[in-house]
Amino acid sequence: MPVQSRRRPPSPEPSAAPPRGASGIRPRDPKDGKNSKEKKGGKKSTKRSRRKDPLWARLVVILGALLMFSSGAGIVGVEAMSNQVNNSIEQENLLGDAGKSDAEGGKDLEGPIDLLLLGVDARARWDVNDTRADTIIILHIPASHDQAYLISIPRDTEVQVPAFKKNGYRGGTTKATEAFFHGAQNGGGWAGGAQLMAQTIKKLTGISFDGAAIIDFNGFKGVIDALGSIPMCVDQEVESHHMTLVNGQPKWNADAKKLSGTKKKVVHKKGCREMEGWEALDYSRQRYGLKNGDYDRQQNQQQLIKAMAKKAIDSGVMTNPAKLNALIKAAGKAFVLDTGKTPLVDFVFTMRGVTTNELVLLRTNDGSFNENAAGRETLRPISHEMFTAVKNDTLADFILNNPSVISKKK
């Protein structure tokens, strides 16, 4: 089926959809459960700005990448669900100048698709100006649309962050995780953080993007809970640096200190098992105590995404209206999305050949440390070659010649 669906234009259209601003998105306040945006004058508004073009496709692009790799799997009530998705998923311009140009295939879905996934943890601090992206993943789908690849970039990779006129940041050399922080300052918010991160990763890798998502890993728990549980394998026993069991119930360490009762350390034992949302997320957050630190965490987070995708298909969520409804509501608390205008039917036909079995997990630097004199990670030549292969859509050939980039996680 031919796909003719326009993606990001070089400049905003005057009438096709409401303009997408770069206003900050404040994480949900745990006191009132509402999502609000900070405007330049410091005032808050609980009103969401949503584009009126079909938004189910935007959910399919990201949630499809994470949860819906489905070769021919039926999707129930597509048209009926579109309005619900529109009301559930926050929309913002997360790419800024890092989106694909028309020359790079920005007008259709016939070529390769590259998405930037950014994981943040808004649990500890609700100040939008003090948020970093500790998870940076590039999802690449080749033009054949029969495969998908996840590539993580180490949070401590030394990067050149460009100047960001929207909030006055002058640019500099820092860790990748800090790019999001600098973009969020002075009213940039989560959208500004994502835009500066996207520009930084484009500068580092040469890759332009079709879409992006901010994933609040604290909200991700609800997505897993909507699935019931997910299968995860622990290959290194590790003690949690974030959670404690109080009377058998998992609590954040800061909260556990305030509570009385029997307290026990959370220890993730070796072996494969079904994990509840809190356990899977806590395990995927650990890096201290792992042999290769953040590199091992990257692989665990990739395993988490693949496990969610497989569970969504195997459990029949995508063909059960009630379960799908719960999943969409949970996703609304976990994602902020940005993709181009893509009618659902076109995207489904485009993605019909991708299944969870074709989701390949890749690693940079062969999964081991490569620090410079400043104590920051630097990408080895093989990693730069891998990103060039992504840009040129020759990743499959690159992997055949460099099998060491494949993650050991399944």
Automatic annotation (TrEMBL):
NCBIfam families the UniProt entry points to: lytR_cpsA_psr (TIGR00350)
Keywords of the record: Membrane, Transmembrane, Transmembrane helix
Keyword Transit peptide belongs to the record: no
Entry-linked Pfam families: LytR_cpsA_psr (PF03816)
Annotated Basic residues bias: 40-51
Biased composition (Basic and acidic residues): 26-39
Record protein name field: LCP family protein
Record field: transmembrane: 55-78
Similarity-based family: Belongs to the LytR/CpsA/Psr (LCP) family.
Region named Disordered: 1-51
Signal peptide: none
Entry-linked InterPro entries: LytR/CpsA/Psr_CW_biosynth, LytR_CpsA_psr
Entry annotated with the keyword Iron-sulfur: no
Species assigned in the record: Micromonospora sonneratiae
Residues in Cell envelope-related transcriptional attenuator domain copies: 132-312
Highest taxon of source: Bacteria
